Amino acid sequence: MSAGILDRLLRTPKEVANDCREERGAADVARAAIIAIALGAALFGGVVGSWRGDWQVAFAALKLPLVSIGTLAICAPAFYAIAQVFGRPWPLRAVVSIMLAAGARLSLVLLAAAPVMWLLISLGASYPLVKVLAALVYGLAGIAALALLIRGLGGERGRAAIVSIFVCVFMLTGGQLAWVLRPYIGMPDRSKAVALFTKEREGGLVYQLFVAAGEIVDPKPARGPL
Amino acid sequence: MSLRELVVVYLIVGVACASLVIRKGAVDASRVASAAATVVIWPLWAPFALGKPAAAQAPNPRDTGAVARIERALGEAVDAAADTPMQGVFSRPVAARVLAEVARVATRVGELRALAQRAGFDLEASARRLRDLEARGSPERTVATARLQHESLIRLDKLLVDDVQALDDLADLLEALRSQLLLARYAGSSAEGAEAMVSEVWARLEGLGAVMDVGRMPMDSPT
Predict the structure, then answer these.
(1) Burial class (CB in 10 A: 0-12, 13-18, 19+), A136
(2) Low-confidence ranges of chain A (pLDDT < 50)
(3) pLDDT tens digits, residue range B162-194?
(4) Which of B221, B214, B208 lies closest to B166, judged by CA?
(5) What's the maximum distance between 2 C-alpha atoms anywhere in chain B?
(6) Per residue in B89-116, pLDDT tens?
């Protein structure tokens, strides 16, 4: 993996986005990005899973990269189509490399937030707090990724529409995939065994986030795993 | 369709893409790794594993903006020269002739790029074939033919790179000319520098024209 490319992703995202758009070293960016996404998500997943410990660390470290890369894989054709519709007849390689570069930036922010998360979990953070913090970190990482995506789309007309539609598609797809592959933090009820997947039906992700936020304000027994 | 069926279909497409990656050229460790990655994440990796390496492509002058820069600089230079002593040297018809020549070069660059994408014109593949034939100790006649093919492709590639560079250089020169003409117009300074640049523009266009049309007389310079 090229550390230089990752350094450029953080320091000069506009330059990387331009290179992707013009297919200058796009394959190298894609290769480094895929590895960064897998490693960043795996480490963050492992940290989140450490709240429960045991096998949950490995399960979360395995599932979070699956969610990240799976979401990008599912959304890639949509992003390509949306870009074409809004006047960006770029090659598939250019579009995918921009998307992967944005995903790598997201994973690097996750990587940077992992030690803080680990510290909070070590200090005894509650289950709802860890859930909301993980969502906040993902939100922050998403903003960092969005910055690269916006730059990558250039200044021509239709940029806002592409970003808006793509963010909606990405969030819906990512949210659903993450929901299907849960839990990551683990079951709050420590008497239950660590499980790779949950079989409980608990409504949607957005509903669960509201529930978790409510539990921070008014603590009571958690209703289900995230 | 159940999730299991979806995964099976996904993997079948992945294996098909991976087999194309393997068949694309000589099998080495990096190609095997690329094929393995293609099986799992083909929507993300197949465009890179199966596509032509971007590094081998010369940039399209229309993509890099060289032609647009030339068009813009020519328009502004004509406006700057209007109603000044330089009007006779750099008029609208002169700019139109420059633009026509640039369009011919840009078209040729496009054709060369299209050629480079076609099967049988892959520089890397021809180099690899030449190396393979030499390593296998193939007959000298076979190696000589492969070498001739490879050298021809190198020359084609060089033509493309040189044309793209020439257009970029011309865009730089015309932008400098535009600035000189603007300076002469507003500061009332001597237009000697601009005249020299106009001569340089024609010299470069003559060079491009001579390469493009073997046997054609060089363009008539107005200077």
Answers:
(1) exposed
(2) none
(3) 888 888 888 888 888 888 888 878 877 666 667
(4) B208
(5) 79
(6) 778 888 888 888 888 888 888 888 877 7
Two tokens, residue B48: 């890179």
Kindly state the tokens that stand for B188: 């009332």
What sign does the CA torsion over A161, A173, A215, A106 have?
negative
DSSP labels, B162-223: HHHHHHHHHHHHHHHHHHHHHHHHHH----HHHHHHHHHHHHHHHHHHHHHSTTSPPPPP--
CB atoms inside a 10 Å sphere around CB B27: 12
Token readout for B43 is 């929507």
What phi, psi does A166 have (nearest 5°)? -65, -40
Q: For residue A93, which residues of chain B lie inside 8 Å, CB to CB?
A: 47-48, 51, 54
Contact at CB, B45 and A26, closer than 8 angstroms: no
Residues of B in contact with A72 (CB under 8 A): 44
Q: How many helices (H) and strands (E) does chain B have?
A: 8, 0
Nearest CA in chain B to A38: B41
Mean model confidence pLDDT for chain A? 85
Contact B210, B218 (CB under 8 A): yes
Most confident of A87-96, A215-224, B6-15, B152-161: B6-15
Structure token pair of residue B82: 């209007």
User: What pTM was computed for the model?
Assistant: 0.58
Phi, psi at B126, each rounded to 5°: -70, -35
B66/B46 Cα distance (integer angstroms): 31
Using the Cβ of B41 and the Cβ atoms of chain A, whether some distance falls under 8 Å is answered with: yes
Question: What is the C-alpha separation between B35 and B30, in angstroms, rounded?
Answer: 9
Nearest CA among A158, A137, A26, A190 for reference residue A89? A158
Minimum-distance CB partner of B48 among A22, A24, A27: A27
Q: Closest residue of A to B60, CA-based?
A: A22
Predicted local distance difference test score (pLDDT) of residue A199:
67
Owner of token pair 């180099």: B127
**In chain A, what are the domain boundaries?**
3-217
Q: Enumerate the residues of chain B whose CB falls inside 8 A of the CB of residue A91.
A: 47, 51
Let me know the angle formed at the C-alpha of A104 by A98 and A110, rounded to the nearest 5 degrees: 145
* pLDDT at residue B75, as a whole number: 86
Contacts for B81 with CB less than 8 Å, ≥ 6 apart: B87, B89, B90, B91, B181, B185, B194
DSSP letter assigned to residue B87: G
